[in-house]
Amino acid sequence: MSAFTKPSHIGRKISRIRELRDMKQEALAQALGTSQQTISALENSEEIDDEKLKQIAKALGVSLEALKNFSDEAAINFFNNFYDNSGSHGTNFGTNNVCNFNPLDKLVEAYEENKKLYERLVQAEKDKVEYLEKILKDK
Known about the structure:
Blueprint: H1 10-20, H2 25-32, H3 36-43, H4 50-60, H5 64-69, H6 72-86, H7 103-138
Helix pairs in contact: 2-3
């Protein structure tokens, strides 16, 4: 941890997570139903009550615990470990994708399932009409 940041400064943690999520203060303000100035003030606060933190965490898409325990070092370690375990080592990220199924087979499966559902729906309607006709004949 650098000497410039305090580990307990929750406002800086909010700011860093917001920046990592590529979110502007205005966007966070809109998600919370407040103003950009309020977000700026929150990011300068050393302490924020838990209820407000829950709302902020939800708007940022993280858990309350992740927000409270965030550190730059942990984030860097996470991404370093992800890269080290990705197997791509020096290649473009995401180029080693392997498709384990034939998309046309999946399309045919979906079509067959829709056909079966339609046939069940038609049969249910026929049963309903038959039932109503029986009721009318009995009157």
